[in-house]
Amino acid sequence: MNLNATRCASPQRTKGVSLATHRIPRFLAGTLAVLALGVAVPAEASVQAAAAPACKGASCNGKNPNATGCAKDAVTPAGAVARSAGGGPAVQMRYSKKCNAVWARFESAANSNWRGKLEVRNGNPYVFNASPNYAAYTTMVNASLATRPCVEHYDGVGGSWACTKKWYY
Asked: How far is 63 from 113, CA to CA, in rounded Å?
C-alpha cells in the first residue's frame, strides 16, 4: 500500500494568518455541535415522557380525561354532538387517539336543568349534570366500545333523552 497516495495535502497558508486561526473556528463549531446534541437529546426525551398517556383503552375506564392528560389531544368526531329539539346546550363526544378513550361533555356551561350522558351499548351509561360554572363532563370509557352522546332537559322525572343516531367506536 502506498501511504503517500492516501495522505491529504497540507493546508495552504494564507499570508499573515497562522494555521491555528483556521483550526479555532472548526474546533468551536465541532464543540458547539457536540454540546447541542447533548442538550437536545435529554430535552426531547423529557418531552416524550411528558406526552405519554396515563392510561390507554380499557385502563382509562372511569378516569378523568383532564387529570390523565387525555383531553390534550381530544377531538369531537364529525356528527358526535347531541342537541335537544327544544334548544339548550349541546353534548359532545370527545375522543383521544393517544389514550384510545372517549367521554361526553357539555360544549359550555349550562344551568342545572340539563343532563348529559355517554351511552354505552350493552353497558351502563355515564350520566352527568350541567353546571353554570364550568363545562361538565363524564369520566372516560374505552373507545373500542360503541358509544354515543345524549342530552336531556331534566324535568325531575327524566326519560326524554336526545341522542345521536349514530354509535361511535
From this structure: 25
Q: Measured in whole angstroms, how far is the alpha carbon of residue 150 from the centre of its chain?
A: 24
Which is nearest to 155 in space by CA: 115, 104, 103?
115
Task: Please indicate whether residue 87 or residue 40 has the higher confidence score (pLDDT).
Answer: 87
E-state strands within the chain = 81-82, 91-96, 101-106, 114-120, 126-129, 141-142, 147-153, 162-163
Q: How far apart are CA 116 and CA 162, in angstroms?
A: 9
Whether 164 contacts 155, CB under 8 Å: no
pTM across the whole model: 0.69
